[in-house]
Amino acid sequence: MPHPHDTLDVWSVEGRFQHLIYSPKGGIEGVLIDTDGVPTQFVFERHDEDAAAAFADLKSGQALVIEGIEEGPSPKGEAQHTVYRFERLASVDGKAPRQAEAAASIDGQVVRFNYARHGEANGVVLDTGDFVHTKPDGMARLGLKVGDKVRAEGRTQPLATGNGRVVEAVRVNGQAVRDDADEG
What we know:
The protein is mainly beta. It has helices at 49-55, 135-142; strands spanning 10-22, 28-35, 38-43, 63-70, 82-92, 104-115, 121-126, 131-133, 149-158, 165-172, 175-176.
């Protein structure tokens, strides 16, 4: 008897950007594209600010290639169009999509932990005011403590407060934040 999760087909879908799809609380939870006259929706994982940021500056009509996994039927009712779970933005107008700031690094000393909504440490705040986001599994892997010197590498963007930056850490002090096996 096959398991439904044995294989997941990632589809590459070409279309034209139509608009963002907002969550009830005003966040960005997906996008709608036009694929040869047919609306196609891509939904982001909850709290995936990186995915939302990749689409924030797009204009209606831009050519996109988006990769995703087709969602099955919803218990809430029939969809009006095809819905995919977003995996990756492959191209915008035939070019690689822009990243916040591709490969930046942030240096500083840990002054406190930052916590996810459920209360688990998901990164550190440095004496520079910068926030190094590692997710809880990254914090467990790195074993950071208050007072540690840190060099974090990854994509950065300004914090909402305007003071400091957030880095989506890929490496901290030369150590990978996530094991490649965790990515699958």
